[in-house]
Amino acid sequence: xxxxxxxxxxxxxxxxxxxxxxxxxxxxxxxxxxxxxxxxxxxxxxxxxxxxxxxxxxxxxxxxxxxxxxxxxxxxxxxxxxxxxxxxxxxxxxxxxxxxxxxxxxxxxxxxxxxxxxxxxxxxxxxxxxxxxxxxxxxxxxxxxxxxxxxxxxxxxxxxxxxxxxxxxxxxxxxxxxxxxxxxxxxxxxxxxxxxxxxxxxxxxxxxxxxxxxxxxxxxxxxxxxxxxxxxxxxxxxxxxxxxxxxxxxx
Amino acid sequence: xxxxxxxxxxxxxxxxxxxxxxxxxxxxxxxxxxxxxxxxxxxxxxxxxxxxxxxxxxxxxxxxxxxxxxxxxxxxxxxxxxxxxxxxxxxxxxxxxxxxxxxxxxxxxxxxxxxxxxxxxxxxxxxxxxxxxxxxxxxxxxxxxxxxxxxxxxxxxxxxxxxxxxxxxxxxxxxxxxxxxxxxxxxxxxxxxxxxxxxxxxxxxxxxxxxxxxxxxxxxxxxxxxxxxxxxxxxxxxxxxxxxxxxxxxxxxxxxxx
Lengths: 251, 258
Fold this sequence. Notes:
Oligomer: heterodimer
Shape of chain B: globular
Largest sheet of chain A: none
Largest sheet of chain B: 6 strands, mixed
CATH architecture of chain A: Orthogonal Bundle
Helix content of chain B: 25-40%
CATH superfamily of chain A: MetI-like
Helix content of chain A: over 70%
Number of helices of chain B: 8
Strand content of chain B: 15-25%
């Protein structure tokens, strides 16, 4: 039942699309029917073209996530454990969130050219800000008594990081990473469209030049599907796991 | 005569605020002897928590000095355990692992650690709750875990900052009796602050009364102990001597109403 409820809007959209296409007799230059998209999908799969573009996009988001996590989490800790730094940086980070990754594209292209480096820089920038921000807020939300109590039990600074700061901030870190990956995925597609060095953004933007509407639509469906698959099957379970166990922290 | 464990002399503390320094306490001199349970009662805001935090080493006194075993206190240390009012046991550790935490930090061997934890789980009435997480426990149970964690780490001195203030009145009576027994059987040096006169007299070998802010020690009263073991509320309330001391403390505290 619930699966049906989830799929219903998709079914309705396809039905609506098909109805408009045939009802108003719209030209294939503007819109194609679902079966054409399906056969285009099969062609792209068959020639291994889709796999090529998908693997580029997925490895880009994967690398960007790992790099952002590796840099963003320690940075968030450093800032979060220092009251003055946290206060100074909070406004700045909010400001940066206002300048989307895409707004950095012109500069990034001038600096790094039409390369993967440009795309990576844009995606890492987009991903890292929510990770730093959420790590910082997570660390700051930890009650001071947890730290004082551990100090009175004779804990070293390192011990307090591993036993209090890390588990205390983990739910927040996971939330930040999940948010960041969502934003990062969108920035990735946008950057690929301009940089044109492979990836799903390149696929759909390239298809436009030849008026391959079927190919554009296949790309869009894949972009949405991959987002859901990664978010629901990979990231959300981790989030549920940490929140369910330590949920008390996030009242 | 037992030796002096904690000596606070010429202590005065000021906090920095936007409008300049604010005096948190007046001049305080306190000596806590080894194996003694000293309770401190005073009106809210009198600076009793400030004094406890300074002994714990969480804050450095503006004036005066604090000695523990003759050595100046320079920061928190495992020889001075602290039980807070609330929010101090870790929500991501089970009851057992919270209690074992101090022993893990001190690298006590597994067998000895488990033995100590089991003993405290028994003493604090936590049997059956060993593998629960704090959010699955009542407030009273959580405070039992906090007390057990501090005792398990085996500090020389235990500092308690209104540990039962956030617990419901019925549970509080039980916890006070349990703590009394624990103190009597382990002979720990305990410094316990509270705003409850009855609690102070019930638990203390000696009761200190503080004036209102900026607080100083106004009076010290000895509470005689008859027989071994902790007190229980039934005989405590029926004892005229205890009632007299409570009334005396009550008068002293009453005069300090803010």
